[in-house]
Amino acid sequence: MAIANQESGPKPAKEWELLCGVNELKSGEATRLEIGDLKLSASKINESVYVVSDMCTHANYSLSDGPLHPENLTIECWKHGAQFCLSTGAALTLPATRALDTFPTKVHGENVYIHLPKKEKQ
Hints:
The protein is mostly beta strands. It has strands spanning 2-7, 16-21, 30-35, 38-45, 48-53, 68-69, 74-76, 83-85, 102-103, 105-108, 111-115. The strands form three sheets. Strands 1-10-11-2 form a four-stranded mixed β-sheet, with no helix packed on it. Strands 3-4-5-9 form a four-stranded antiparallel β-sheet, with no helix packed on it. It has a three-stranded antiparallel β-sheet with strand order 6-7-8, with no helix packed on it. It is globular. The termini are far apart.
């Protein structure tokens, strides 16, 4: 789910939205970010950036407040200990049973872009 290469040339196409500056993310830590009403947890591990929904699917606690485990690409809910895979969003341990949403990322220059699902026309 993460693309972390430094690209040159034109800016990413319009479906990619600016998330943050790459220097705003500390390596090995989760950072809480928002785009509109969307609450996100962004993590930089080595040269890759992973973005998942920030709320635990078990009890709606912020995952950015819990520990990140870079060695196995997981994030843990601080409240009940549920762990999730950063690359797939899969719930790996109870009490969580539902996966997190994941979002593809791209680093372009000094910025991190996120690919958001297209909004449905109503």
